[in-house]
Design brief:
Blueprint lengths: L27 H4 L7 E2 L7 H18 L10 E7 L2 E6 L9 H15 L8 H10 L3 H12 L6 H18 L3 E2 L6 E5 L6 E5 L10
Parallel strand pairs: 1-4
Antiparallel strand pairs: 2-3, 3-6, 5-6
Length: 208
């Protein structure tokens, strides 16, 4: 596509190359280097392994290219398929492995973060520590307040952020067939990993 010279006072030609085999249309999305993947993530319209694989792939693409624009940014680095779930791994717990010894390591890491300051693994906690410095007392006080439901835990908000992330990925046409009632969104018992488990029985929809 080229704009010819109109007159001597417009000496600039503009051109955008079209990929080989294309139909000649250049969209803003193509020009920006983005691809409409439209990965179907419905576990009812696809086999469960395909839905899990597509979901993990889309989330990894989003994490790599800063598509999320939510409070998951900066805290979560990778998604994987594991034991029938998609796990979005929190940066502070990556590399601890799986199994019994990993659970012990996660508990130790959680206590280490608690002793740094209030809700240290959350964006708000990290910001507080950066401003005020570490405080084991405030960390333990915050832990007690969260466990007594006197303070809101960041992990309580993670499912909302995951849902918002998937809404945005669908709007960007990176994923398709995203239905909230088809997925159970939770967090790991120890640590802040986000877990997405497919729901195949419609009668379980009220449990998400």
């Amino acid at each position: 596509m080229s704009t010819p010279h109109q007159s001597s006072d417009k000496p600039l030609d503009l051109a955008i190359g079209v990929p080989a085999g294309g139909d000649g249309e250049v969209t803003a999305r193509m020009a920006g280097g983005l691809v409409d993947m439209n990965l179907s993530i419905s576990p009812r319209q696809n086999s469960v392994p395909v839905a899990l694989r597509n979901l993990a792939k889309a989330i990894n693409l989003a994490l790599k290219n800063d598509f999320l624009e939510t409070d998951l940014d900066g805290l979560y680095k990778v998604a994987r398929v594991w034991k029938g779930q998609v796990q979005i791994l929190h940066k502070d717990y990556i590399g601890l492995g799986d199994g019994l010894f990993a659970s012990v390591g996660r508990a130790a890491k959680s206590m280490q973060l608690t002793l740094r300051g209030p809700d240290a693994a959350s964006p708000e906690g990290a910001a507080w520590i950066a401003e005020h410095g570490t405080s084991a007392f405030r960390g333990l006080l915050g832990l007690i307040g969260r466990k007594l439901n006197l303070l809101q835990e960041y992990e309580d908000k993670v499912p909302m952020y995951v849902q918002l992330t998937l809404d945005r990925l669908e709007a960007r046409r990176i994923i398709s067939d995203w239905h909230r009632q088809e997925w159970k969104i939770s967090t790991s018992l120890v640590g802040l990993d986000a877990l997405l488990e497919p729901i195949l029985d419609p009668s379980q929809d009220d449990q998400v």
